[in-house]
Design goal:
Length: about 500
């Protein structure tokens, strides 16, 4: 279990034993021993986390040798830096009303520690992407909108509910990013239009946007962008609709592929452009991997909708039906539309159970899916709630979930294995990095690799087995020996 002492160590708020965590946290900054564009072999570090051990433990990697022919009996990780693929957009999480409410109840020192934990690229996760909601989602104490019922002129529009907690926290996050030299990009997603614009007369339980209100809803979104930017939260982009094929007991609204295409092409896109907001990026779909190929093909093949689309977002919840994660669908869309960005926009472990708060398997699930998504062509990975309470909420429909950080009863931060898993990617793989070829010789290991814009290489390796593994790391025409603990997660950086 990650103790409060461990948390302080992660944040650099206490003396760092041997400088290990500080060394592990280097990302955009050059590693010790690095001079200019040339990498000394002594600069390479192996950063390791495993069950029952300290997190982000760093040690020097042994010297590289000229690569030999590996026999079939060896376990190998092969990295070919001459094969470049997608550019990284970034890693991040969501600031919902729930996050803002829990943050407000933290002790003052923990509030500052929260910002360091996520935006410090050395001792924290170095987040560069934030997602937020357009009025309420299920994660928050209540449902609400920004206008009075029936106000088609939107004269009553006000983001006053968000100005209490969520907007100030977003502003603080942006400032924390800037303090560390990171341009944090914010995008917003709606869960539902106001009840009076919908076929079912409710924000909850699905329903569709009534055709008569398509323009009104588009103008509502425009007003949201203008209001947030006027309040000091610039919006990089928007998704058209969160989970458009889900009828949930909480805020939800159904868009078929044709509905989303026409709304974007004929209403939302033109409304943003007319308001001088045409540079805001648009993410379509924003739902699970299962229907991803169908939705992407329908929207991207439409000549009126396509010019508005920056990328296709997706979630990981397709396993609700009992199957395996559909990473192959991400790869299929990437192959079919290589010029379109694919962004993982939401994922969390549902059905919160306090007894599982420090379950290492939660972190393993994140690491496994992040490796598979990135290798399939995703340009980034955005987690769901960044902070929740000791019940996995607040959530006004009792849809409690896990988060990387939870608040204890006395207002302190509790770090979980999810936080650790994300850190093995976000600390070392920075925006504008490019994925390079990475493969393993055995299925007991999974790997992905990225070349950062500053020339550093980050190789993430996951040990799926219950036994320690010794493997040969091949980087182009050189190799080094590495050991990884049982169920361990490693990032090799240099």
């Amino acid at each position: 279990m990650t103790t409060r002492r461990d948390a302080m160590r992660l944040l650099g708020a206490a003396t760092l034993a041997g400088g290990q965590v500080a060394a592990a946290g280097r990302s955009s900054a050059a590693p010790a021993g690095r001079q200019g564009a040339a990498t000394k072999e002594t600069a390479w570090q192996v950063v390791t986390s495993a069950p029952g051990t300290e997190r982000f433990m760093a040690r020097p990697l042994g010297a590289f040798q000229p690569a030999g022919q590996p026999p079939e009996t060896d376990i190998d990780v092969f990295v070919d830096t001459t094969r470049r693929f997608q550019e990284v957009f970034g890693f991040g999480g969501a600031m919902t009303d729930a996050v803002a409410e829990v943050h407000a109840a933290l002790a003052p020192s923990a509030q500052q520690a929260f910002l360091a934990a996520y935006f410090d690229p050395r001792a924290g996760l170095g987040y560069s992407v934030l997602r937020t909601t357009i009025h309420s989602s299920d994660f928050g104490s209540r449902s609400y909108t920004y206008v009075r019922d029936g106000d088609t002129a939107l004269a009553s529009f006000s983001i006053a509910p968000d100005l209490k907690l969520r907007v100030p926290l977003l502003r603080a996050a942006l400032a924390a990013g800037r303090a560390h030299g990171t341009d944090v990009r914010v995008f917003a997603s709606p869960w539902s239009a106001p009840a009076w614009m919908k076929s079912n007369g409710s924000m909850l339980g699905g329903g569709t946007l009534l055709p008569a209100y398509r323009d009104t809803w588009a103008r509502y979104v425009v007003k949201f962008v203008q209001a947030y930017e006027g309040a000091g939260v610039p919006l990089w982009g928007l998704s058209v609709q969160n989970e458009p094929m889900a009828k949930q007991t909480w805020e939800s609204m159904v868009f078929t592929a044709e509905d989303e295409t026409r709304y974007l092409a004929d209403h939302l896109g033109p409304a943003l452009r007319a308001a001088g907001l045409g540079s805001r990026k648009i993410i379509v779909w924003d739902h699970n991997r299962d229907l991803l190929p169908q939705r992407a093909a329908h929207i991207l093949s439409d000549p009126k909708a396509r010019p508005y689309v920056w990328g296709v977002g997706y979630h990981w919840y397709e396993t609700w039906a009992g199957g395996e994660p559909m990473h192959a669908n991400v790869a299929a869309v990437h192959e079919a539309w290589p010029d379109v960005n694919l962004l993982m926009t939401e994922g969390c472990i549902e059905k919160f159970d306090a007894a599982r708060l420090q379950d290492w398997a939660n972190g393993e699930r994140y690491a496994s899916q992040m490796i598979a998504d990135l290798n399939a062509g995703a340009c980034g990975w955005v987690d769901w709630n960044m902070l929740l309470d000791s019940r996995g909420g607040p959530n006004h429909k009792n849809n409690f979930c896990f988060a990387p950080l939870h608040a204890s009863a006395d207002g302190q931060l509790v770090f979980t294995p999810i936080y650790t898993a994300i850190g093995h990617f976000s600390r070392y793989i920075r925006p504008r990095a490019h994925r390079v070829s990475a493969a393993t010789s055995r299925s007991t290991l999974a790997a992905t690799a990225f070349r950062n814009a500053d020339g550093t290489l980050a190789v993430v390796v996951m040990n799926r087995s219950d036994a320690p593994q010794r493997y040969r790391l091949f980087v182009d025409r050189k190799e080094a020996a590495v050991e990884i603990p049982a169920r361990g997660l490693q990032t090799i950086v240099g």
